[in-house]
Amino acid sequence: MNKESNMTVLLKGILRENPVFVLILGTCPTLATTTTVKGAFAMGLAAAAVLICSNAVVSLLRKIIPDSMRIPCYIVIIAGFVTIVQMIMHAFLPELYELLGVYLALITVNCIILGRAEMFAGKNTVGKSILDGIGMGLGFTIAMLAMATIREVFGAGTFFGIEIPFLSTHTIDILIKAPGGLMVYGLLIAVVNIITKGKAIKKKEFSCAGCPSAGICNGGCATAEKEAE
Amino acid sequence: MDTFKSLVVILMSSVLVNNYVLNRFLGICPFLGVSKKLNQAVGMGISVIFVMLVATAVTWPIQTFILEKFGLEYTQTIVFILIIAALVQFIEIVLKKFIPSLHKSLGVYLPLITTNCAVLGVTINNILDGYNFVESMVSSLGCGLGFLLAMVIFSGVRSLINESKIPQALRGLPVTLIAASFVSMAFFGFAGIVDNLFA
Amino acid sequence: MKKNITSILALTVICSVVAVLLAVTNAITAPIIEKNAAAAADEALLVVLPEGEGFTPVDLTTYELPATVTEAFTENNGGVVVKLKTSGYGSDMVVMVGIKADGSVSGAVCLSSNETLGYEKTYGESTVGMTADTIDSLDTIAGATKTTEAYKNAVKDALNTAVILGGGSVDIRDEAQILADNLSAALPAGEGAFEKVFITEVLTDVSAVYKATNGSGYVFVSGETFVGTDAQGTVVSQVDATLSATIAANAQLIINSELTEVDLSGYEMPKQIEKAYTTATGNYVFELKAAGFGINGDEYYYPSGEHIKIKMSLTADGTIIYCETTYQNESEGIGSACADEAFYSQFNGKTAETYGDIDAIAGATITTNGYKTAVSKTFEAIKILKGEV
Prior knowledge:
The complex is a heterotrimer. Helices cover 61% and strands 2% of the residues of chain A. Chain A has helices at 6-12, 27-32, 37-60, 70-92, 94-100, 102-105, 111-121, 126-155, 178-195, 220-228, and strands at residues 158-159, 162-163. Chain B has one domain (15-188). Helix content of chain B is 72%, strand content 0%. Chain B contains 9 helices and no strands. Chains in contact: A-B, A-C, B-C.
């Protein structure tokens, strides 16, 4: 992994290892806050900010944090940054703060951030970790915007709150509701599957092996699957 | 009677109408990840109910009697997530030591729950909605039951998917999400049922 | 062991550093958040008081305000915003009213309601510019009397609140409270419990009579004056000799009034007449039923329709002494006004020639007509009883 050039580290998050469409991380905000482009944009930027900061700090402290205690330490660092972002948004962007509501606090348990801390920042230099954070954050934001655009334009007939003639009178209401979110997400993953055929990381099933949190849960998921069989 | 009524409304609305998984998208990761088999789904669901109840029982008093009292509301996120992480560890240790049989069936799911946003979500939402202690517990129970219900229903749907022929691009996650979308649509039918429950 | 200690130490250090960072951020952002929240709260109040600035909430416990007031704010230029909770037609309405420093309404909106007709959404506009002196002249909307009446009273309460907050004093008692206070003042022995007396005699200079439910006496209303008497009719209130004598005479009439029921089986009475009585002084008292809304015409009844019950007293020559609605189940807020004293007391003093002159109930023509028809039958009934027909 250390052999990757800086450019690859930065760019892989946008498509080849897109956290939303390929790594299937952070599904919860992806579905919940993409009803409006504005909300998706704010969520993307907030998560990216937390991701970059936590990546930087985690990689800075990677030699100090004892291995056995790393997950609680990561969680504290991430939760700290989330709270700071929360407070700053509350103070300077109150409208967006209201819009995102509880999902802002839930960035803490967004597995993209913990996943990147565990998979990348804990093993790489500060510089690369920041680049990874930027790339992943960008990938997340782009994915969010793509989903939100589809949902808002066809579901509400607006884009960034601006009404679109014709579409605003012919809306597909279900798209901005919960089922629409799941459906658009499923279809977009299928599209990305086709585009990146062969190039993207093979991820046949949503299962434990590919889960970035695998390390965190000590293979709990895999054990669970085995037990079940 | 009125309190009882409002509690039933909270319970029913969090199980059916505002189902955490299908309507608010909290806990969607385990919903997609651990719903392939029915017994897995049930095990995960019960563990989540258990952790949600314990987490609410601990976080509500801490929020009310410590954080609010000393003006430390801004540390809510960090305090709650640490409490949940510690609780999950603690529950696992206790179960392992004293009730090994239960640990054997639920233990494997417990570590997964730390990063389950439904648990953090329900504890924060209870505070945001201004529920008192009993209401919070009922709402947590409802959310947990809703999670279990969604998991069980969905595991049935998935066993059907496994037996079907699916286009290449949709295989795996995409078709799972689309199926989830239909289950979510079915839950739409419950909207309004709670408001008219006592009407 | 050493490994454990370093682990714990590392986590503790990270936690403390994060805690310090959070405290610093909080110290910077908290005042801004607070300011934003205050500005947002002000913005909601600006809807009804556009030129207001710097709102401060009023501690309601330090003033004696109308019971409907839930929140009040004063503003730098002397304006006031009041939030009130009142009950409209079957539901609670929350109304917010802005009042300028000059005491006139600058805006009124209904924040939440569950009314059926939607008039509460627009009625507030008609109150703009009203003052405490002019608000009574504002019309309610026919067909939505309950809603608009409640709204109007809320605005009136708000105007009174503004006066009180400005240091003035206002009688904030409602009509029922004023009546109860006056009755108690006239006859303290009644212990505040009075019921209206159905008057069967021709009284002089008296518009209404109340009886203490504990039997301790009567209160006579003469013009604006409330005069109390004991159970034997002796005046106990301090009034001038002329009035005292008049009231004492009236009291004797009331106390000695006795009704004898007339057996109607021998007469062919209009079907509206249910019972008839005569008094010792030769007056007549009738209990009647009137066809209300839902009972069509003379013959045909809808199953849902119910009769309005009326009790009336008349002199032998056919002048109505007293009229009262004793039961009704008309449309709430419309025909139900037939149970209002303002409606039925119009008949007092009317005769067969003049009973038609009363004001109809707005929007309830059928109820009014049914009522009038029933009233007219009493004149006929007296003639029948006297054997003139």
